[in-house]
TrEMBL record:
This is Putative nitrilase, sll0784 family. PANTHER family: CN HYDROLASE DOMAIN-CONTAINING PROTEIN, NITRILASE. PROSITE patterns: CN_HYDROLASE, NITRIL_CHT_2, PIPLC_X_DOMAIN. Residues 7-273 form the CN hydrolase domain. It comes from Chamaesiphon minutus (strain ATCC 27169 / PCC 6605).
Amino acid sequence: MNFTRKVRAAAVQISPVLFSRQGTTEKVLESIDKAAQMGAELVVFPETFIPYYPYFSFVQPPVLMGKEHLRLYEEAVEVPSPVTEAVSQAARSHQIVVVLGINEREGGSLYNTQLIFDADGTLALKRRKITPTYHERMVWGQGDGAGLKVVDTAVGKLGALACWEHYNPLARFALMAQHEQIHCAQFPGSMVGQIFADQMEVTIRHHALEAGCFVVNATGWLSPEQVAEITTDEKLQKALSGGCCTTIISPEGNILHPPITDGEGIAIADLDFALITKRKRMMDSVGHYSRPDLLQLQVNSSQWAVVSGGGDLPTPPYGHPSEEGIFSPLYKPG
């Protein structure tokens, strides 16, 4: 593991092209090109950015959101598909690692999915948000532990979580235990108001300190015109404002680029991996500061399926310690 390198990272705050998978994808490709021109080796986009975050579910009751939910189905992204191929080609062309949030469609279900493309265009990780939050449960299905994985990439060991997954300390610890060097965080943005941005900053700075890693955080943004497209109710429009905090945090909890809180923009910072060692020398949560004789985490890292390979119903998995100090299941469905 290289602790002496430096990596230039970019976090993109951007608005989608509402109701258009193609339009939003084109904006992603343009932003990858911009980030690459700025010397970025890693670029992170907001949560479920293609085609757009389901803001409708936050301001409409379930009985009224059927039309918008179906429209999201039509514009959602399959993996693989022309969208993922286009992003893969852009990553490969610019030799840049891309972390992208999508609404993924698989059959009759949608998922909040994070994709990590390595600099050679390879899809290094596809993970699904393990528990959709509040209103999101009417939109997306649940992910599984197979996505709680840190992957080796051209810029180092990357982990990723979406939005309020950062309030699940065990999910964060599962990534910390795999020694993530850069944590890629994604939030929707343009929701709830300034309090959401304030809480977000506290959350990502805390993870950087606790994990001893860099955090690259990207949030989406809606223009006033887009908010009016989502709802004409002025009271509800207030719920679709603020909540943006696109920034980059060091392992010591310092802000490396002033948070972008309004409008579109790209946060850029150089990540000096020597700061990881500097932080962990003082406090390594999964090393000399841990107490595995007292506290351990068990992780079911199986990718679950509705049918197992042998035709039998899956049975609860039980784990044993792996070499990395986290728990892995004995049973893996076919």
